[in-house]
Amino acid sequence: MGLFDHLRAPKGKVWISFDKPTFVEGEGVVGKVNVQAQEYIQSLGVRVEARVFENYEEMVWVRVEARVFENYEEMVWVTLPNNQRIQERQHRQNVLFSRDVQVTGPNDFGSGPTQTFPFSVGIPPCRATRGGATVENSIKAVVQVKGRPDLTGQTQVAFVPPSSMPQPMQGYMPGGYPVQQGYGPPGYNPGYNPNPAYGQPMNPGYGQPMPGYGMPPQGQMPQQQVVQVRCKYCQSLMNQNSANCPNCGAHQ
Hints:
There is one protein chain. Among the domains are: 5-55 and 93-157, Sandwich (Immunoglobulin-like); 227-252. It contains no helices and 14 strands. It has strands at 12-18, 23-24, 29-37, 41-63, 65-70, 74-79, 85-104, 107-109, 115-121, 134-145, 151-156, 159-160, 228-230, 237-239. Strand 13 (228-230) and strand 14 (237-239) form a beta hairpin. It is elongated.
């Protein structure tokens, strides 16, 4: 190890991969810490640091100083008269939640394939305490290195409220769920008891028309249509079979 090697972080990369892109608020964050070393690293352990930050901006008073250059070589700081100050918008950050979880104990890493370590950490739902502030959910993976700066990798976690998650339809059973007893073909699920008469021929006469089906009810014979003609004398309509006109009584 060189003289100043203890001042620099080891060569390698550490990053976090989650089991899914988003989590429901209140749900545990599950993922893996991935470590890829490019040199020998003597680690004291791997941990994850869960943080919830509140980011906001506020106006602060700052003292103004003027810069005076002489011959473009020497710089002198000169304070303005009466300690003049102005307002400046500056970024601020509060920590709303903090939790560290030890993922693994002491371990040695060397050049080779990536090593993965599963983890799970809970992050409670947090809301901004100031108007216009934003909330940032962050997880940082830390490989603690003996006698040298740690190897770190940080990422943000996406949360959604429970009401925004799609709800299963009533009665819908996706694949992989247990099947109720008695459901499915024989041998598919214990307890299945098909109808003993299923597949057997029906009672005699099944499929045959019922007696009298399609016939008019008794006592209601269909009426035959009677041809109408006009009387030779008064031109009134009358039945063709009538001998006399019902209007004028003339014989036809």
